[in-house]
Amino acid sequence: MGAGKAVQNASLGEEIVRRVNELAAISEGGDKLTRVFLTKELRAASNVILGWMREAGMSAHLDAIGNACGRYEGEQPGAPCLMLGSHYDTVRDAGKWDGPLGVITAIACVADLNRRGKRLPFAIEVVGFADEEGVRFASTLLGSRAIAGTFDESVLNTRDRDGVSMRDALIEFGLDPDHIGAAARARRELLAYLELHIEQGPVLEARNLPLGVVTAIAGATRLAARLTGMAGHAGTVPMALRRDALTGAAECIAAIEQFCRTDEDELVGTVGYIQARPGATNVVPGEVSFTIDMRAPTDMHRKRAVADVVRQIEAIARRRNLVLQLDVTHENRTVPCAPWLKDQIAQAIAAEGFSTFELPSGAGHDGMAMIDIADVGMIFIRCRGGISHHPDEHVELADVDAGARVLLRVIEHFKPR
Ligand code: GLV
Ligand code: MN
Ligand code: MN
Ligand code: MN
Fold first, then answer.
1. Domain region containing 151
2. Ligand 1 pocket test: which of 198, 365, 366 has the largest number of ligand atoms within 8 Å of its C-beta?
3. 417 in a structural domain
4. What pLDDT, in 10s, does the model give residues 362-395?
5. Residues 63 and 74 in one domain
6. For a designed S-S bond to 128, which of 72, 88, 146, 382 qualifies (C-beta 3.0 to 4.6 A apart)?
7. Distance between Cα 286 and ligand 1 center (Å)
8. Are the C-beta atoms of 79 and 73 separated by less than 8 Å?
9. Complex ipTM above 0.85?
10. Is 393 part of a structural domain of the chain?
């Protein structure tokens, strides 16, 4: 590698890190990063991203669900595209890399091509998906599902924790809930979908490797549970007569943890949100809602585990005389990455002088939705301590550089199937 190229690539990484920090400053408040679907902060972030896309030589627009979409034409205008993407929404109290790194790195690669006046035999599109995390409404991958044409209109009626429906939130954001179909793309428009993302786990770090080739994205099931008992006076209702929804939920949550812990094969289960009503010190809780997130390396394993957990929760509710309502709010199958894309990513990693290593993704990604209209490939970048969905999420500049170089090489050497 010549000295000139090394200098240029180092600045590519620095620019990416600067932008990751710039985007992280757009937050719903407090000193931690939170930027969920259809908020004014998400809107502000989309404007910044669209500006970066235009600066990089792309035409750019906000699509019908709020995805930031940029297009860099190839040698012939109107050619099918290699789509690069990731999400720019975050979880609550998030790290700044999960999601935006993939969008910003893709834009940086296009900017580099544009500076060199280089056009490819295909177009490049970069998408910043507006909702991957699914933390505001019950469903997830809403940005990529809209592009894949699999957006389920029934989620428009779901409400966030403040009671705002997705339909109203879309209108407030400046979008038309009745025209989300306009975001959909056809399979023939895409040559492939590629995503660069932090690993969000400890495997690459343990192996002392900056980069990995993703083999598959693990499936996930999300459920919403509601237990209804009987609210009452904390001083007068005898313990034996109580129908306490919160102690019932506590027993369910402990059972889920115990069940997943005793599984030998990487089953994970999480209750990440709980709300007790009416919610007062001196009132026996009459109603409790909580979420369940379950994942396993294979779909069969996950489905069996979900069925077992549901049976246990039903039994606990029955024994405690609580009414149970349990809904599956989200179900995603395990998505394999395409072997031909894995090969091209591995070749680029090797050509940049790194060892190639394959690993699965335990976290969800937009590729889970994009698989319906394109083959999917993913590059993982090492993160510190495997920490993610936490403010301490961190990626080293050298690894950002390495990832950007590899992505650029994949793009420049890309051979459609
Ligand atoms: C989002 O990051 C998820 O994997 O649920
Ligand atoms: Mn992510
Ligand atoms: Mn995430
Ligand atoms: Mn994710």
1. 3-218+335-412
2. 365
3. no
4. 999 999 999 999 999 999 999 999 999 999 999 9
5. yes
6. 88
7. 31
8. yes
9. yes
10. yes
